[in-house]
Amino acid sequence: MFGNDGDEPLSDIDGIDSDAEELETGQDGGEGQGEDEEEFSIEIEGEEQAEETPLIKTLRQEIRDTKQELHKYRAASAQPKIEVGEKPSLESCEWDEERYEAELDAWKERGRAAAKQEQDELDAQNARAVSWSKTVQNYQLKAAALKVSDFQQAEETLKVSLPEILQSALLAYADDPAKVGYALYKHPARLAALAQETDPIKFVIAVRDLERNLKVVNRRNLPPPDSETFQKGSAPTSGPKPDKKAESLLAAAEKDPTKFAEYRSYMRSKKQA
Does residue 133 lie in a domain region? Predict the structure, then answer.
């Protein structure tokens, strides 16, 4: 399985949280303008304003939910560890019984508070582990349903091609991460383009948009070529000249996923040329 091999998602996925907060409040973090200010919009002449798509609305809600969980975790983690200390004794209290009773009660209270703090941290860790386990199980079920012979090779290719934060984002936010991952494996140019995305939220939006346009084609049931497509004596329209080096690098990468980086580097340099 590609993505983080541990029980919990990568902490770097917090980057999605900070980007989402900017989308919610604006760069200055403000909660909105005063009620007395006039509402207005900026329009382009001759073009209609586009409404926010259902995809973006859904993604925003998912990010809000994730952000709330992260805030709870951070608040719990920010609390200093409670130090119980040594149990007081009459000798340590200079044989003052009243002082001893007060310090003993305080020591017991610190013990109860420390035990609760430890249990709360354990519960939070378990909750994150359960949530991530469900994400992994969903991925494994979707992967098994694909029933393709080269899925393991596809996983290895994505491990080499995508940074771990993007692997985790794909697992967490795609409805069918196995299908999306396999589609990217079969379309190296699209995979290479997404791998260069440094903004996790833009990556998630691109993945969700890609997923909406995926379709499964059973090649065994494809109709035979139409013999009347070309008229007798006519020549097919010539397409772009094939890039033999790119084809050679891609063929090598399909056999050895570790060589995919070389293919991606070549395609990037070709695009910049």
Answer: no
